[in-house]
């Protein structure tokens, strides 16, 4: 199995480099293949061949194989960057600069590294090193307070997934293949045709298929596996709800507050202040608002409408809605702040021309304002996703504590519950690595999809 993985890494290196004509020289293919195999061999070299041991499960084999290929992929990206630098090639940044290429600053090659060194040191000490240590802890059976730990290889990861290795590999591959196929279909068809419209619908469905594939590969529980599929579904619902509430609400309020009104500066400042409070305070506030016995929401609903609102902690839908509302409100001020700044960059000449041409307010908003705000929207989408993934633990802990029946236990809450509250550091670390990989994947996906439609200074 180890030999097969190394051979696959060698073939992967050849395929990776032959996509570009300038990498197809025998020398560069040889270097790329060697680097790919060496990077793949570094995984069993540091961890040992535990993933392919006789006592390991087929799912462990798949994960170890994927880890070796991931190591090869990262090494090949670095190798390709070195090749590009030797060729004098550089990525096209015209979209980010608005085609501004004039000006320059000559200095010694080591000066930029010297200026970046404080940031690099901080990243290495507080980000990269803890990330490696967390992955290492995820391969151990470690208990909080126990003096020793036992190596369990990748079993903490494999217990979160289904036990069938064929389906574990097939579902993501089919989903990714569908994304590439529909993307090719969309590019191959002409706009304003039925084929292109069907391709766009199929492309959207294929992206949704990736989330379905992820749902299918996570374990529903039983047979010694951890029931991680409900955690994934809950995380997806609350994350999408929080991001949608925060961004749509932030844009709507910012668009209204941007108008010339008396005392507008004070009014806008008051709109931003929720971002200054912590998620813990937001959880306490909404806990007091929605408390079924002494909450103001229950009181107003009963006095004004004669409605007895059920206890939100006993209903999965109400509990998730309360978490989404509290988390969305917490990030609302942040979004309003950036959208207010972005609205100042909307070209007034285009808006005035649209008014003269008879465009409605909705047409001006969708055709002029929204495209001008695309850089801000893209930035906020990434930051809001990060907030929804990592920073809502305190809100959930004060409002529901994961209830009812774990329907508000998102990934970050589950990590702390398992790793800290239950003291199972190995399983908690494995879940945190999984969340870290998920955030990286979502961010890269955003750059590959939404980033292509972002307009910077008139360049697309």
| CATH homologous superfamily grouping of the largest domain | MetI-like
Question: What is the highest CATH level, the class of the largest domain?
Answer: Mainly Alpha
How much β-strand is present in the residues?
Answer: under 5%
Low-confidence stretches: 93-102
Query: Given the C-alpha coordinates, what overall shape results?
Result: globular
> How many helices?
19
Mean pLDDT: 88
Number of domains: 3
- Give a short account of the largest sheet: 2 strands, antiparallel
In short:
The protein contains 19 helices and two strands.
Fold blueprint:
Layout: H1 2-17, H2 26-47, H3 58-87, H4 94-97, H5 110-138, E1 140-141, E2 150-151, H6 155-158, H7 165-188, H8 194-217, H9 229-257, H10 264-272, H11 279-290, H12 296-304, H13 316-343, H14 348-356, H15 361-372, H16 374-390, H17 393-399, H18 411-421, H19 425-449
Antiparallel strand pairs: 1-2
């Amino acid at each position: 199995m180890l030999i097969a993985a190394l051979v696959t890494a060698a073939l992967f290196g050849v395929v990776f480099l032959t996509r570009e004509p300038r990498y197809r020289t025998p020398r560069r293919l040889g270097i790329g293949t060697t680097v790919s195999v060496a990077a793949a061999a570094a995984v069993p070299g540091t961890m040992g061949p535990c993933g392919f041991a006789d006592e390991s499960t087929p799912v462990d084999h798949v994960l170890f194989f994927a880890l070796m290929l991931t190591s090869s992929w990262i090494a090949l990206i670095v190798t390709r960057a070195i090749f590009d630098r030797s060729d004098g090639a550089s990525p096209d940044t015209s979209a980010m600069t608005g085609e501004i290429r004039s000006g320059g600053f000559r200095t010694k090659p080591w000066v930029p590294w010297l200026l970046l060194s404080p940031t690099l040191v901080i990243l290495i000490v507080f980000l990269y090193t803890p990330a490696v240590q967390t992955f290492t802890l995820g391969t151990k059976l470690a208990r909080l307070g126990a003096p020793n730990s036992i190596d369990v290889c990748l079993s903490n990861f494999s217990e979160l997934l289904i036990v069938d290795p064929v389906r574990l590999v097939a579902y993501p591959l089919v989903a990714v293949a569908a994304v590439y196929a529909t993307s090719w279909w969309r590019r191959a068809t002409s706009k304003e045709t039925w084929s292109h419209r069907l391709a766009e619908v199929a492309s959207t469905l294929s992206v949704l298929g990736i989330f379905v594939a992820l749902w299918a590969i996570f374990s529903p529980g039983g047979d010694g596996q951890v029931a991680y599929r409900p955690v994934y579904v809950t995380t997806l619902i609350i994350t999408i709800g929080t991001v949608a509430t925060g961004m749509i609400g932030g844009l709507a309020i910012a668009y209204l507050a941007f108008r010339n009104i008396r005392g507008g500066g004070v009014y806008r400042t008051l709109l931003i202040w929720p971002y200054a409070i912590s998620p813990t305070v937001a959880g306490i506030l909404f806990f007091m608002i929605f408390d079924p016995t002494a909450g103001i929401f229950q009181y107003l609903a009963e006095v004004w409408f004669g409605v007895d609102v059920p206890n939100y902690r006993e209903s999965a839908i109400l509990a998730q809605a309360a978490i989404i509302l509290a988390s969305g409100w917490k990030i609302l001020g942040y979004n309003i702040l950036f959208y207010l700044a972005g609205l100042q960059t909307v070209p007034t000449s285009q808006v005035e021309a649209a008014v003269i041409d008879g465009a409605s307010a909705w047409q001006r908003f969708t055709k002029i304002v929204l495209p001008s705000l695309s850089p801000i929207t893209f930035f906020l989408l990434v930051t809001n996703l990060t907030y929804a993934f990592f920073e809502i633990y305190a809100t959930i802990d004060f409002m529901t504590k994961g209830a009812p029946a774990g329907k508000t236990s998102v990934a970050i809450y589950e990590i702390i519950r398992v790793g800290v509250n239950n003291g199972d550091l190995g399983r908690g670390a494995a879940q945190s690595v999984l969340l870290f990989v998920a955030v990286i994947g979502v961010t890269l996906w955003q750059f590959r999809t939404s980033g292509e439609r972002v307009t910077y200074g008139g360049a697309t």
